[in-house]
Amino acid sequence: LARGARGRRAGDGALRKLLLVLLALLVAIAAATAYLFVWPETDTAARGADAVVVLSGGRGHRLAEGRRLIAEGVSDTLVISDGLDEGWAEAMRLCTSRRAICFTPDPYSTQGEARWIAQEARKRGWDSVVVVTSTYHVRRTRMIVERCYGGDLAVVGAQPPLGNRIVGVAWEWPKSAYYLTLKRDC
């Protein structure tokens, strides 16, 4: 009888340790998520940038932030990725009225956008670019654009609606892992 009670206590202790380890792991993942994707370091855009580039995805809040930066005099040049998409009426108006430069990235990804930025910077003589994306996407954007573009780069995060934020943060873990390990080129 005594051996059975000791065995149960030992089993309870092992279970308790396992639960503590799992809790610690959960807390570490939550803290890393908050640091990397919820409240990342975002740049302040300095006046005199050659262009403000709004990345596609999260269109409403990103475009609003890009337009705010233009209105504050950060740059005279607004660039919108995928701005000619028929589903994005506000961007399309800016693109067709020639108040913005619009492009479709190839491939259709942050990497395609970074390649376009680097190519256009060389062609147009841009030395400084401000890239606008969602807050959860700031770190990965900086990493990818820096691989392609060697000029002065500021990455500004725009706060997405809560639903977008939750989905975006969830996607950032696998996407960041992919770009950190398998897709390391420009």
Protein described:
The chain is built from six helices and five strands. 56% of the residues lie in helices and 13% in strands. The longest helix has 37 residues. With 186 residues, it is of the alpha/beta class. Helix 4 packs across helix 5.
Summarize, please:
With 186 residues, the chain is of the alpha/beta class. The protein has helices at 2-38, 59-71, 89-96, 110-124, 138-148, 162-181; strands at 51-54, 78-81, 101-103, 128-134, 152-158.
Largest sheet: 5 strands, parallel
N→C terminal distance: 67 Å
Give the percentage of residues in beta strands: 5-15%
Structural class: alpha/beta
Write the layout of secondary structure elements.
Blueprint: H1 2-38, E1 51-54, H2 59-71, E2 78-81, H3 89-96, E3 101-103, H4 110-124, E4 128-134, H5 138-148, E5 152-158, H6 162-181
Parallel strand pairs: 1-2, 1-4, 2-3, 4-5
